[in-house]
């Protein structure tokens, strides 16, 4: 499919431009926020000489444009520098923490799609009936509180008062899983340890659900709204007049044309979850990138800040590209036109 | 003579709204015999389309609608059927053609897949390949030569005229006893409309399908229909064989409707009262006994 490939190339090119812009911005902001990174890293007992040495080593006394030049040259080699907080390469730190966050966000995204969209479809199909009203109430509840509030409420309800789920962490300490991909749900399966997989899955349910809840509500509400509008279209009346089964009309004829706006919002929500994950990670003691990100910002760990932000931006852009491609795939008018509409 | 394909007797329809009860149809009677082409003619808002939707059973699903009177389909009272039995008629024993073919086909599914769903109404186990083959042969009947391309296309890739032929082919695919055509092709330009109507007429003649043809276009009606019913504000004001009605319209509203047809010779549209009391005259309200 040539138009799809062209669309992909175009999106990749614009994403690269966005990434370069983001890197410049965060590079500058990290250096503008007050505080001397060398002094913070070396601690209160460091001598002026030690600080001057570290500043020289980090090129902190050079012009900011020159510093950016060093940075870009390193990035091109896949080197994001050494973290002053952990004393390890930033890439290693990110490789350690990113999978936990991605795992959480991916599971939450899956919940958003697999729960939010069907709720929206049912709601639209039974519009005006009791089922619709109940679903609308639930989704309104979902969107009206931020994920960290839900995290606390869910934790209290289902881990404390009613201990159905573990209260924190990614997996029980009794399981020793050596990281291969860093995704516990995958690593446990690779090891063939079903019990450990179950344990990891059991741990991820509450934090992922807390993270997904507002997205579920939003996906359901938007899908319902779009589908209710679609139900007024002549092609739905035609499907009804031909006696197509009501379920097929709902799941195919009305859902598919309404999916595109929902998908855009799901993509945005999905990306926003990368940020929201921080508070949820903090509440559930989830060892993810967001916690690392805040720790390095507080330490003014320049390399780590820039690296973390770049990785999150890249993930955000990737999700957007995937959503764009999905939309193009679902909408034949885009798929078959030379210029994306 | 066998039972009429469609027999409507004293049909009333009203809607319950916030402002109270509004009656839309005040007692309509009409019948369509097997293989007969009957036109229901009237201006916008006269109740043509709701009549069609009652026959299909679509309005009955609305909670605000109140329907009285009797609708018989092939001798069977539709009120005596349960939901499932009513549903079984749709798309199989009766089908419908809509005003705008392009917006009546789902924009994100290929024509072939939509055709498959239509054919599945008569044969739930038909495979996609078998459905496409059958669709191609029906499309050939409406003079679509490159059926493979058409079935593989999305509606926006085809012209309005081609979509209209697809609609006609779909409507007749399951050999229904009754075809309801709600202002077919009004959204198309006049020459294309004439072409597709010609095809439709040939097809319903070949298949001996009864047609309830809803239109405001008198020229088209004269070409197409055997019988004509003129509807005004929810009442049938005049009925009869097409030629008789055109040659000697008896009701003031029918005469006004005919005077409103634009003429090639020019002269503009005559000044017609929006709401003459004459139009409400009960001249032909229940003329059905005189027919047959």
How would you describe this structure to a colleague?
The complex is a heterodimer of chains A (341) and B (292). Helix content of chain A is 76%, strand content 0%. Chain A is mainly alpha-helical and 341 residues long. The longest helix of chain A is centred in the C-terminal third of the chain and has 38 residues, at 246-283. Chain A is globular and about 85 Å long. The mean pLDDT of chain A is 87. In chain B, 36% of the residues lie in helices and 24% in strands. Chain B contains eleven helices and ten strands. In chain B, strands 6-7-8-3-9-10 form a six-stranded mixed sheet, with helices on both faces. The longest helix of chain B has 18 residues, at 190-207.
Provide a short characterization of the protein structure.
The complex is a heterodimer of chains A (341) and B (292). By secondary structure, chain A is mainly α.
**Number of structurally distinct domains of chain B:** 1
Distance between the termini of chain B: 10 Å
Strand order of the largest sheet of chain B: 6-7-8-3-9-10
- Residues in β-strands, percent of chain B: 15-25%
Indicate the percent of residues in helices of chain A.
Answer: over 70%
**H and E order of chain B:** EEEHEEHEHHHHHEHEHEEHH
Name given to the CATH homologous superfamily of chain B: P-loop containing nucleotide triphosphate hydrolases
Instruction: Name the average pLDDT of chain B.
Output: 86
Question: Greatest contact pair?
Answer: A-B, 21 and 27 residues
Amino- and carboxy-terminal Cα gap of chain A: 16 Å
Number of E-state strands of chain B: 10
| Main beta-sheet annotation of chain A | none
Tell me the fraction of residues in β-strands of chain A, as a range. Answer: under 5%
Q: Cα-atom Rg of chain A, whole angstroms? A: 24 Å
CATH class of the largest domain in chain A: Mainly Alpha
| Principal-axis shape of chain B | globular
Region (Disordered) (chain B): 268-292
Main location (chain B): membrane
Protein name (chain B): ABC-type dipeptide/oligopeptide/nickel transport system ATPase component
Family (chain B): Belongs to the ABC transporter superfamily.
